[in-house]
Automatic annotation (TrEMBL):
Keyword annotations from UniProtKB, A to Z: Hydrolase
Gene Ontology molecular function: hydrolase activity
Chain ranges of the BD-FAE-like domain: 30-215
UniProt feature coiled coil, ranges: none
Annotated Pfam families: BD-FAE
Protein name in the entry: Alpha/beta hydrolase
Keyword Phosphoprotein among UniProt keywords: no
InterPro entries, alphabetized: AB_hydrolase_fold (IPR029058), BD-FAE-like_dom (IPR049492), GDXG_lipolytic_enzyme (IPR050300)
Gene3D superfamilies: alpha/beta hydrolase
Origin species: Companilactobacillus suantsaicola
Length: 274
């Protein structure tokens, strides 16, 4: 496996992606093109959680997938949006333009988002599949498209009282554009299938977030698989020792750790993974 950091550019802005490229296996009788996961970690739009970066990338590698982590725009002098959407579009474009020698199955690009990164992915799943919105947010200059999304305890609707961000100042720091406050309202007939999971006891992002997204996908008759686990805090990632914060056993949850195997099964069912 080759790991490498790259600097990518959109107009007047530079950002970083981290790649985890699989090698060809010598004892295969032919070369193989691998699907790819583009991962957007959480962090409340104030940092990128490393617990949702390399551990997740390596797990997708173990499924026979390349992986790329996107260090998208955070709260700062400029709003998160629409820059974060443009960064994701550019990352897909960059993957699409990788040489054949990289052995990427570019028709099987899966977007993976956790928490705040889940909002980036969930929003992109609507914006990128709407011609007018692609033009409005300047995504139409980028090529390539995703095939599906995987969302872990995602922020969906940023206007829900008592749920993230639950702060009007932070909301406007994330986006001044109210169109982007509710990812469920961006979905359309051309949006891609989704695998979604959350815990009922999530103290930061209320369960109604995922319910609204899944309900809207059902209304549009888009394939979706949804798992609501009965217990667990926000930010579990795998719920195992790999992603446990040191000494904080509340980050261990053997039941929710099964989501990754369920996602693997779903990808196979959707014919996005052999």
């Amino acid at each position: 496996m080759e790991t490498k950091n790259y600097k990518l550019q959109i107009p007047n802005h530079e950002f970083q992606v981290k790649s985890y490229w699989l090698d060809q296996i010598a004892d295969f009788d032919k070369e193989v093109d691998f699907p790819i996961a583009i991962i957007c970690p959480g962090g409340g739009f104030t940092f990128h959680s490393q617990r949702e970066e390399e551990p997740v990338a390596l797990r997708f590698n173990s499924f026979g997938m390349h992986a790329v982590v996107l260090e998208y725009q955070l709260i700062g002098n400029d709003p998160v949006y629409p820059t974060a959407l443009q960064e994701l579009a550019k990352t897909i474009d960059w993957v699409t333009n990788q040489p054949a020698s990289r052995h990427i199955d570019k028709k099987k690009t899966i977007l993976v988002g956790f928490s705040a990164g889940g909002h980036v992915v969930a929003s992109y799943n609507g914006v990128a599949s709407d011609t007018a919105l692609r033009q409005k947010y300047q995504l139409d200059q980028y090529h390539g498209q995703h095939a599906a999304v995987i969302l872990g305890y995602p922020v969906i609707d940023m206007t829900i009282p008592g749920s993230f961000p639950n702060d009007n100042k932070a909301l406007h720091q994330i986006s001044e554009d109210q169109t982007l406050w509710k990812a469920q309202d961006l979905l359309n007939q051309n949006s891609k299938p989704a695998f979604v999971w959350q815990t009922q006891t999530d103290e930061l992002v209320k369960v109604v977030n995922t319910i609204k997204y899944v309900d809207r996908m059902n209304e549009l008759n888009i394939p979706v698989e949804y798992h609501l686990f009965g217990s667990g805090i926000h930010g579990l990632v795998f719920g195992t020792y790999v992603t446990e914060k040191p000494g904080k056993r509340k980050y261990l949850n053997s039941w929710t750790s099964k989501w990754i195997e369920l996602a693997l099964n779903w990808l196979q069912m959707m014919k996005l993974l052999d």
